[in-house]
Amino acid sequence: MTSLGMMITLVVLVAAIVYSKATVFPRPSADENNSNYWLKMGTEEIEAALLKPKLTNTAKNVILFMGDGMGITVNTVSRIYKGQKKNGYSGEEGHLVWEKFPNIALLKTYDLDMQVSDSASAGAAYLCGVKANYYTVGVNGHVKFNDCEASLIEENRLTSILQWAQEAKKDTGFITTTQVTHASVAAAYAKSANRKWQCDKKMKKFGQGAAACKDIARQLVEDVPGKHIKVVMGGGRQEMGSPKRDEIEDNCKRTDGRNLVRDWISQKEENGKSYAYVTTTRELHSVDTNNTEYILGLFDEIHLPYETDRDTSLDGCPHIKEMVEVAINRLKRSDNGFFLFVEGGMIDNALHITSPKRALEEVLAFEEAVELALTMVNTEETLVIVTADHSHVMTMNGYPPRGNDILGIVTESEDISDGLPFTTLTFANGHGFNYSFNGKEVVRPNLTGVDTTDKDYVPLAGMPTHYDYETHGGEDVAAFAVGPWAHLFHRVHEQTHVAYVMAYASCTGPYKDCHHHAERPFNEQVKKNPKSDSSSATGLFSGIIFIFIVAVQILFV
Ligand SMILES: *[C@@H]1O[C@H](CO)[C@@H](O)[C@H](O)[C@H]1NC(C)=O
Ligand SMILES: *[C@@H]1O[C@H](CO)[C@@H](O)[C@H](O)[C@H]1NC(C)=O
Ligand SMILES: *[C@@H]1O[C@H](CO)[C@@H](O)[C@H](O)[C@H]1NC(C)=O
Ligand SMILES: *[C@@H]1O[C@H](CO)[C@@H](O)[C@H](O)[C@H]1NC(C)=O
Ligand SMILES: [Zn+2]
What is the CATH number of domain 61-70+99-393+477-512? Predict the structure, then answer.
């Protein structure tokens, strides 16, 4: 071998060793080895639970944050990723902002005809309070997929928490990182037998029957409650017939020649309303939220870019938290309160293409948006919920050592019989299906030397799918809540429970008469000491438990 050849071999070998030895992040606390560390934490959490107020005043505002596809595994993995990325710590001991909310429940996500739901039928559950069929938007179970005719029957059409809020004279808004006509947000304002009917072109495919129905984009601009929504932000200029770039792939190009953005603007002008239509971060920042009634932000032709790929300049597309800031500044001017729906929609898309790093970055961006919102509202008068619509089939497997890079590999395992390194994160299905036959047996790729932390790395999948078709998962999702009536999230519920808690807490929709709440204006209610609601018996009981815990602590120390 020449010396150059040797040198190259050496470099390759060193690189392989660097990559195949996964990063292990340190634990932040040296006390974890001590039993008392855990007792102290236990006691603090019991104390917090005992002192937890039950807010029974009417929620002036409701903010629903929904991470599309943000199942429980994604939640755990994001928590670890956050700690490793932000602090350089092992991560498992950390938490996401919503994990400190006082109340949590699990939600059953099946829909009427599938064990595993899609975002549209899930949207009907948590936004409208009714379970529906797969791929249908804002209609009940009498409407089968593609049945335009049934979707036009009045009794089959659902109303959502967004509409209930409007009927209670609250201002409303939604934000998504997907198209503004995409399944989740569409369930808040549209009714459609097929979630793909985002523009007229997709409807033509289904012949005469569908022609009687209206596409989702038109419903947003022409119908109630869509046309009364004060803040609409996301992607989807193509569906709205107002693309800036024509060369973009054809997701749903309008064929009716309508420019729905122009129509939206004319409508506001005819009604003498102030408005802002914005398409870049710079324009978003320039919106005078104190003097603008309606805001429409369309920041890309189809979906917004992934956080890992976003143009972060002022000419690019805003971070989800920038959209939330503008939306809340506008909506909180409403004397009667507001309802805001924020969807972290690209979490789902990143998982469909089985790109864990992209998905985790989407969750952390979404988390920043939740964190910011909490600084802008008072949770004594604002119910804040963080949930997901359904899960995905990513799993966290093997026995990675504590602090192992969550995007990295596990090199030593007694359980994996082929002796090859494997990634902690793998998928039950996806386009990363990659087994081959070596003449003797079926083998999977040897990950030695592969950088699995790259955003483009595709982990192994058990079953093959097309490029972006990794499927949803069917286990329960969590709902985390803080604010008035958050304690109504208390066990395993049907996903429909979310819609009813939001309505009950804010006295809207089916609970608009609200006899169960004190009939006092919001401001007076929030002045009331929330703790005064718990009975003296509970107080006494808390006191006894507290003394008991202190006594136990003293004994153990
Ligand atoms: C806990 O104890 C083990 C066993 O002695 C030791 O290897 C480890 O470093 C200790 N952890 C910390 C954080 O001190
Ligand atoms: C909008 O109005 C609020 C309340 O009156 C005020 O605090 C805030 O500074 C105003 N914002 C701008 C940008 O003028
Ligand atoms: C499949 O594995 C081989 C190595 O065995 C690798 O070169 C290839 O890029 C992998 N393909 C996919 C789609 O992951
Ligand atoms: C995987 O690849 C590395 C580096 O080429 C090699 O040392 C190792 O033996 C391989 N493992 C198996 C089980 O083939
Ligand atoms: Zn999906």
Answer: 3.40.720.10
